[in-house]
Amino acid sequence: MAQPPIHHNPPRPTATMLPSTKTALLTLTTLLLGSTTSQTIYTGDTLQGYPIISSLDITDVPSNTISRFWLSPAEGQGGLPYFLPIFVARGSEESAHSGKRLSLSASIHGDELNPVAVVQKIFARLNETGRFPGNSSGRQHDEVSAGGFNGTIIGLPTQNPQGNLLNQRNFFTSSSNGFFTNLNRVFPGVTIEEGGGLPDAYAAAIWNDVWGNTTNVDVAVDFHTLSTGSLGPLWCYADYRLDGVQRLAELLEADMIKIDPGEPGSIETTWVEAGVPAITVEIGPGNIWNATLINRTVDYAFRLMEDLQMFGDSSGQVVPDLSETYIVTNFSGTAVSYSGWAEVDVGVLEDVEEGQVIGRVYNSWGDKLEDLSAAVSGRVLDVLVDPAVEAGTGVVTIGYNATASD
Ligand SMILES: [Zn+2]
Question: Which of 42, 49, 98, 369 is the 20 to 30 A CA-CA neighbour of 84?
Answer without folding.
Answer: 98
